[in-house]
Amino acid sequence: MRAFRTMAMVVLLALALPGTADARPPGYAGYLFAYFTGEGTPDGEQVYFALSQGNDPLRWQEPSGRPALRSTVGTQGVRDPFVIRSPRGDRFYLIATDLRMYGRDDWEQSWRHGSRSIVVWESADLVRWSAPRLVQVAPETAGNVWAPEAFFDPARGEYVVFWASTIYPATDPDHTTTSYNRIMYATTKDFRTFSAPKPWFDPGHSVIDSTVIRHDGTYYRFSQDDRGPGGGGSTPCGRYITEEKSRVLTSGSYDLVKECIGKDAIVGGEGPLVFRSNTEKRWYLFIDEYGGAGYRPFETTDLASGDWRPVPNAQLPGKPRHGTVLPVTRAEYQRLAAKY
C-alpha cells in the first residue's frame, strides 16, 4: 500500500509539472526566464536569467546583466537555452545550442559544418548548476543542431529531445549539396545517453525552433516556417509561426491549427516559447522578433483555436532572445531572487 501511495504521488506530481502534462498545481509564485541576448556582444551567447514580478508574466524584474551560466565547452557559446523540470520535480535540465556567432558572418558555415552536439547543465534547485557537458545527438550526416528542447513523454517514461538539423547524403561528407533544416528527435532518461535520432517534422522545406505544450491530452507544437530569403523558397507565412496538434507526442503527422501566427503584429518571428498562466486559464506565446526588439508576447484563452492576440505594453527583461519561461514555486523564486 505504501508503494502504491508513493507511485500515485509521483504520477500526480508529474501531471502537475510544466514540460510533462496538463494541470497547473497550486503554489507557483512566479516565472523564471532563461534566454540569450544575441551575437552582438562577447557575452551575448551565454545563458541569462530573469524573474517575473510575482505571477505577472508580462512584467519582469531588471536582470543583473551578467550571464547566469557560461559555456566552457564546444564553441564556448550557447544560444536558445531551454530548461525543463523533471517529472519528480527534483531535478532541472538546461540544454542549449552549441553555437557562437559573435564576430562572424557565416551562417551558411554554421548549418553545413556546425556542432552536432548540445550543451547540458543539471541542477537540483535552479541555483547551483553542474559544469556544462557536450553531448552529441546528431549523426555525421547532419550539418548542425539548433534550438534543442525537451518534453517528458509519460507514455514512454522518458524525455523526447528535439532540434533542427540539416541532413546531407552519406555520399556527401563535405556537405556541399543543397539541404534544409528539419526537426529531428531522440529520447533519453538522463540527458547523457540518447537513442538514435529520427526525423519528426519534415514538411519538405526548412522549419526550425519547434516547441511543445500539452493540454487536455493533446500536444500543441509551434514551429517557425523558415521559408523566405535564404530559407529555401518563399511563402506568405514564411518567417512566422505555425501551430499544430496531435494526441501522440512523437507522431509524424500533426494536424494544422493555424499558420502565419504573428504576421499582423511583427516583422518576422522565430524562437516561439509557450506556457500556461500560473493563475488562470490563459496561455502565452512569446515570439522572438529577431530583426526588431526581441520577444513579443501574445496570449489566448483557447489553446486549440490558434487565435493569438498581441499583448501591448509588456515589460520584458531587456532584449531577450530565444529562450524559455518556467513556472517556479515560492521557495525556488526566493532562492533565485537571492542569487541573481
Q: What can you see in these coordinates?
A:
The protein has 340 residues and is mostly beta strands. It has one domain: Tachylectin-2, Chain A (5 Propeller). It contains three helices and 20 strands. The strands form five sheets. It has a four-stranded antiparallel beta sheet. The chain has a four-stranded antiparallel beta sheet with strand order 4-5-6-7, with no helix packed on it. The longest helix has 15 residues. The N terminus is likely disordered.
Short description:
This is Glycoside hydrolase family 43 protein. Helices cover 9% and strands 40% of the residues. The protein has 340 residues and is mainly beta.
Oligomeric grouping of the chains: single chain
Strand elements, count: 20
Indicate the CATH architecture. Answer: 5 Propeller
| Strand percent estimate | 35-45%
Termini distance? Answer: 43 Å
- Number of separate domains: 1
What is the spatial order of strands in the main beta sheet? 3-2-1-20
Any idea what the shape is?
A: globular
- SSE pattern: HEEEEEHEEEEEEEEEEEEEEEH
Which CATH class? Answer: Mainly Beta
The overall pLDDT average reads 91
Low-confidence stretches: 1-18
| Class inferred from helices and paired strands | mainly beta
Indicate the CATH topology.
Tachylectin-2, Chain A
Total count of helical runs of at least 4 residues: 3
CATH superfamily: Glycosyl hydrolase domain, family 43
Write the layout of secondary structure elements.
Elements: H1 2-16, E1 28-36, E2 48-53, E3 56-60, E4 78-85, E5 92-98, H2 107-112, E6 117-123, E7 133-136, E8 146-153, E9 158-166, E10 181-188, E11 198-201, E12 207-215, E13 218-225, E14 241-246, E15 255-261, E16 270-276, E17 283-289, E18 294-300, E19 309-310, E20 321-329, H3 330-339
Antiparallel strand pairs: 1-2, 1-20, 2-3, 4-5, 5-6, 6-7, 8-9, 9-10, 10-11, 12-13, 13-14, 14-15, 16-17, 17-18, 18-19
